[in-house]
Design brief:
Elements lengths: L2 E5 L2 E3 L5 E8 L8 E6 L6 E6 L5 E3 L7 E6 L4 E6 L8 E7 L16 E5 L2
Parallel strand pairs: 2-10
Antiparallel strand pairs: 1-3, 3-8, 4-5, 4-9, 5-6, 7-8, 9-10
C-alpha cells in the first residue's frame, strides 16, 4: 500500500520561502514520476510540478521560475523549494504520482498534505 507523508509547510510573508518534503513508501520509488499538487480555498486541486525518476522537471505556468522540484531516490523523498511566494500560493500542498493531464485517474490515495499560508 502506497503511503505519502508531506511536511515543511508553514506561514510566511509574501516574498518568503519554504521547502516542502514528501516521503513515499510502498512502491519502487526511483521508477515513478512524482509531482506536487495544491488545493486552495474555493478551488479545485491543481498540478504544480512534476519530476521523472532521473530528475527531469516540469512546472505549471503559475509557479515556473519560482518553485523548484527535486528528489532523492535513496531517501524515497521528493522536495519542493518555493521562493518568491505570493498570497495566491496559499493552499494545502500534496505529493503524488504524476501521469500528465489525466493525473487524477492515476494518483494513489492522498496523504494528509501540508498547509502553506502566505500572508502579510
Amino acid at each position: 500500500q502506497v503511503q505519502l507523508v508531506e511536511s515543511g509547510g508553514g506561514t510566511v510573508q509574501p516574498g518568503g520561502s519554504l521547502r516542502l518534503s514528501c516521503t513515499v513508501s510502498g512502491i519502487i520509488f526511483s521508477i515513478n514520476v512524482m509531482g506536487w499538487y495544491r488545493e486552495a480555498p474555493g478551488k479545485e486541486r491543481e498540478w504544480v510540478a512534476g519530476i521523472t525518476g532521473r530528475g527531469a522537471a516540469t512546472y505549471s505556468d503559475s509557479v515556473k521560475g519560482r518553485f523548484t522540484i527535486s528528489r532523492d531516490n535513496a531517501k524515497n523523498a521528493v522536495y519542493l523549494q518555493m521562493n518568491m511566494l505570493e498570497t495566491e500560493d496559499t493552499a494545502v500542498y500534496y505529493c503524488n504520482t504524476y501521469q500528465g493531464s489525466n493525473w487524477n485517474r492515476f494518483v494513489w490515495p492522498w496523504g494528509p498534505g501540508t498547509q502553506v499560508t502566505v500572508s502579510s
